[in-house]
Specification:
Largest sheet: 5 strands, antiparallel
CATH class: Alpha Beta
Radius of gyration: 17 Å
Oligomer: single chain
Number of domains: 1
Shape: globular
Number of strands: 7
CATH architecture: 2-Layer Sandwich
CATH superfamily: HIT-like
Structural class: alpha+beta
Amino acid sequence: MNKYPLGLTPNSSAIYIPESSHTSKGVTKDEYVYEYEHWHLILQPEDKRSVRGMAAGLVVAKRQVMLVTELLPEEWADLANVFATDANGLADAPRRLAEAVGAEFTGHFTGPAFNMGNLAGQTQAQVHGHIYPVVAEQLPPPGTRNGMGAFIEAHRQLNDL
């Protein structure tokens, strides 16, 4: 299994993860999805996707930069391309992530969600946004509540007992 580290090698767009600061062991060729002008699109490792969704991914800045506030205007502009919609109204990056795992993208997703610094839970010293495409294979059955609605329903049921 060929691994690419996650992050940025100085003077290149190669991805790496500094072993001393992160638990990930790298990105497999199967997890690498697409390269934009200023961003890499990768699937989260399989163990993370089993919890966060089968098409959960990351958009990672190519340039070595820790905080989104340090991004250049052209990097922000390219981020708009990452999420631009096609003729069917589907956002590019979430659609590519779903296709990479052989799932049907519903057109709905959350993200990109950026953690800013250690206090916000950022463990990788590289700007990256989390993307969570909603795929048809993981939709709850009709009439099932999820998200905040599921939390409220569970709370109601607990209090009724």
